[in-house]
Amino acid sequence: MENIIIIVSLVLFLYFLIVGQYISSLMFSIGMIGIFLIGGMDLLSGFLQNEPFARTASYALTTIPLYILMAQFIMQAGIVKDLYSLMYTLSRGRPGPLGVMTILLGGLLGGVSGSGTATSAALGQIAVPELQKRGYPDHLAGTIAAAAGSLSAIIPPSVILILYGVVAQISIGELFTAALIPGILLMLVFSVLVIIYLRFNSKELKAASQEYVSDNVPISRYFIVTILGGAMGISIFGGIYLGVFSPTEAGAVGAFIALIMATILGKINLNFFKTSMVETTKITVMAMFIVVGASLFGKFISLSLVPRKIIDLLGPIMDSPVLVIIIIMVFYFFLFMLIESVAVILMTVPIIMPIVTAIDADPVWFGIMLTIVCTVGMLTPPVGISVYAVGGVTGIPIERLFKTSTVFAVVATIVVIGLLIVFPEIVTWLPSQMR
C-alpha cells in the first residue's frame, strides 16, 4: 500500500510540476495528501499545527532576508555598473582580459549579493554589449554573463548553502567557509573555458573595434566602491571565519555597509527604499513558503521510508562510497536541469542525507559538491535560470545561449567535482582552521 501511495504521489507531483504549478504549493499539497494517506488525519493535523511555525521560526533562516536586503541595496545603488566599469578600465578594453574579469566580477558580486538571477541580469545589461563590441559572439558573451551570475549559488553568502544548512542541520558558517576555495576553483575553470573559446574566435576579435574609450567615471567613485566593497567582503567572511559574529549578524553588517555605500554615492531616495524593501519581502516570503511546503513534503518522504528503500536498493555498492557519490551527483545534475534549484535542495536532501550518513561521507563536503552541481544547473536547459535572465535582457536567442552554456556546465562539473572527490581537503581544510 505504501508503494502505491508513493508512486501515485510522485506521478501527481511530476504532472503538476510540468503543467506549471508553483513548487511551494505543490510540495505542500502533495505532502499533505501523502501524510494523510499514510498516517491519517490526526497525524496530518499534528504536523500542520506545529511544522510550519517551527520551520519558519528557525534562527538560521533569518540570514535570508538580511542577505537579500544587502543584495537589493547593492543593485539599486548601481554598484554593479561601477564595478564593471572598474574592470573595464583595468583591462583597458582588451577582449581577453575583459572576458575573464567579467567572470571574476560575477564571483565578487555573488559574494555580496547572493542572487544569481539579479547578477546575471545585471551583467547581461552591462557586460554583454561591451563584450560584443570587442568581437565576442553573442552566445559566448551571454554565456559569460550567465556563468558569472551563477557563481552566486556557491560563493558565500549563498541562499542555497543557507537552505542546505537548515535542512541538513549543519553550521551555516562552516558551509560558507568551506565554499570559498571550491568557488574560486569554479571561477578559474570558467575563466579557462573563456580563454579557450576566444582562441577559436580570434579572427572575429581582431576584426572588431578594440579601441579603448574611457568611461569618465570619477576616481573617487571607484575608490568608494572598492574600499567599502572590500570592507563588506572582509566583514562577512572574516567575521564568520574568526568567530566574531554569526552568519546572520554578518548579513546585517553587510546590509549596513551597502546602505552606507549607497548613501555616499548619492543613491538614497524614497524609491530606493521602497524598491529594496518590496523586493526583499517578495523573495523572502517566497522562500518561506517553499520551506514550509518542503517541510511537509519531507515529512511525507520520511514516513514512506523512501530513504531506507533507496539504501536497500544501493546495498550492493554501499561499500564503494565514491561510486555512490558519483551516482548521486549524476542524479542531481539531471534534476537541476529540470527543476528549480531551491526546490531540488529542499525536496531531496531529507532523502539523500541518510545515504550520505550510511557511507560515512562528510555532510559539509557533500553539501559543497551539491552546491557546485546546483551552480552549473543554472546554465543547463530547460530550467537554466541564469541563461534565461541573460536572454531576457539581451534578446539573444535562448537556444544559442544554451549550446555554449551547457558546455561550460558539463566541463565545470567533471573537473571540479572530480577534484573534490580525489582531494576532499579542498573543502575540509579551511573549516578545520576556524576558531
Q: What would your notes on this structure say?
A:
The chain has 435 residues and is an all-alpha fold. Helix content is 80%, strand content 0%. It has helices at 2-18, 23-56, 63-76, 79-91, 95-113, 116-133, 138-150, 159-168, 172-200, 202-207, 219-241, 247-264, 270-303, 306-313, 321-338, 341-358, 363-377, 385-394, 398-422, 425-432. It is globular, with a radius of gyration of 22 Å.
Structural class by secondary-structure content: mainly alpha
Mean pLDDT: 80
**Unreliable segments of 5+ consecutive residues:** none
Distance between the termini: 51 Å
Number of strands: 0
**Radius of gyration over alpha carbons?**
22 Å
Number of helices: 20
Strand content: under 5%
Query: Which of globular, elongated, flat, extended, rod-shaped describes the shape?
Result: globular
The helicity comes to over 70%
Spell out the helices and strands N to C.
HHHHHHHHHHHHHHHHHHHH
Biggest β-sheet description: none
